[in-house]
Each structure stands twice: as structure tokens, then as C-alpha cells.
Amino acid sequence: MSTIEIKNLGKKFLRSGSSEDTAVTAIESLDLRIQDGEFFTLVGPSGCGKSTLLDILAGLAAPTSGEVLVDGEPVSGPSLERSVVFQQYALFPWLTAVANVEVGLESQARRGRGLDKSGRRIRANEYLRLVGLQGVEDKYPHELSGGMRQRVAIARALAHEPKVLLMDEPFAALDAQTREQLQDLLLDIWNRTRTTIVFITHGIEEAVYLGQRVAVMSSKPGRIKEIINIELDGRHSVDDIRSTPQFSDYRHRIWTLLHESAPSAGNSPVSRKSLVSPGVPA
To answer: What is the pTM (predicted TM-score) of this model?
Structure first.
């Protein structure tokens, strides 16, 4: 578990072949503190910088200004202490389910602080069971459904017991029933482990259902517009918390904030694929 501090964060991109004078500001003056062991969800209009923010938290991209601290230490690159689950499953197709889960454990072992081969296999099987996938250990990704592949990705992200779990719309490509099943699974895992989770989503209901707090981002440049504390009475005793007036109130409040932040027609967000960081060749 870890505390995340984001201080005056900024990120600019250049259009391919353009000068720094025409840089697009994706994130500007963003300040945020995520508590140790918190389940924090983040929503915002397309192009507001949600995924860029997650890339910076993961150490996959560097900020243009400001800093990100995890337990007081600056994020300067990828780390096994921060696991990432993306929308696409990103499994190695030539590895079985259990071997995919072992990947992070093997990286730990190469650094001299992990388990031996037998221990890695035991741990990987434990986490496959944790996500409800006992019996598929020796199957390859193409033999699994989309929901099962995402369960393997979650097991892999958790097996080496990171301090922070970063999730970028991990359930967006799944059907509604599978998505709700994995939401419940993720909440169950979080209740057991209290791993700090930062979860990005386009789904308002998903953000409210999962998060202890929901941050709403504004667009162009991305900033935190408002943070809403989610207090749902009887989350575990009500058959469908989503049908309660309390849940509906949160959903409507966030929808209103997003509607206010939506970019106007003709001012659609710039694709990240056409952008590069200042000073980085296209």
C-alpha cells in the first residue's frame, strides 16, 4: 500500500513535425493526493489526459513539469511496485495462463528479491485461484474468453504484490455481465489486500460503484474539476446498490460535471497517436 502525491503536474505534447510553440497541453497544474490503501476512480471526457496521467504514474511517461511521489519518493520510471492493467489484455500469447502470471515474479527473482521457481509457480496458481481461474493454468490466451484473459492480467498484476495497482479502463472491452462480475471481483480483492488502486474509466456507474472517491477531470488542458466522496449505505446488504436513490444522485452529479467539461463541437480532442513529447523525435 502506498500514498501518491501529485504536485503541480503538467504534460505537453508536440504534433508530429511541429515546433514546441505549438505544443498541446494535455495536463496542467494538476494537484492530487491519493491515500494509502484507497480505491480511487477517475473519469473525464475523451482527450482530457486520463491515460496520460496514468502513464506518468506508472513511470511510462515523464511529466513536462511538476512531480509524482509515491511514499515520498519521486517516480522516475517503471517499477514492480506499481503494476498496470490496460484495456487490452497484453498477455504473452506463447505463454500459458500460469506462465503469464509468473512474468512479474520472474522479474523480481532476477533482482535477487523474489521466489525460486517452485515458489513462483505456487504463487501464480494462488493468484489464478484468487481471480476464479483454477483449472485453466495450462491454457493459452487464445483458448480463453475476453473476461478470463483480463482475469489473468489482473492476477499477473497482483501476484508480485505491488504497492499500487494502476488500471486504465480494464473492463471497457467486455460485455456488461462480465464487466459487472469483474467489478465485484476487483472489489473483493481490494477488500482483502487494501492495495492502493487508481482506476480510470469512461463509465460513471463504474466509477461510483468502485471508488471511495471519484475525481472528475476537465478537458484541454486536463485538470481535476472536482473530487466526490462516495458514501453508499449498505453497499454489501443491498441486492443492487446501483438502483438506489443515493447511487442515482452520485451518478447525476458526476454526469452534470462531465457535461459541463465536454469539449465543444468542432474542438474534438487530438489523438495521442499523432503527438510526441517535446524534444522527442516523431
So the answer is: 0.87
CATH number of 4-81+164-276: 3.40.50.300
Residue 22 is predicted with a pLDDT of: 72
| Amino acid in the structure at residue 21 | D
**Side chain identity at residue 80, one-letter code:** L
Q: What is the C-alpha separation between 106 and 109, in angstroms, rounded?
A: 5
Stretch 83-107: mean pLDDT, rounded? Answer: 90
Domain positions in the chain are 4-81+164-276, 89-161
Residue 83, CA atoms < 13 Å, CB-side half-sphere: 25
Cβ atoms of 120 and 98 closer than 8 Å: no
**Is the separation of the CB atoms in 152 and 144 below 8 Å?**
yes
Burial 169-196 (b: 16+ CB within 10 A, else e): bbbeebeeebbbbbbebbbebbeeeebb
**Taking 50 as the threshold, does the pLDDT of residue 279 lie above it?**
no
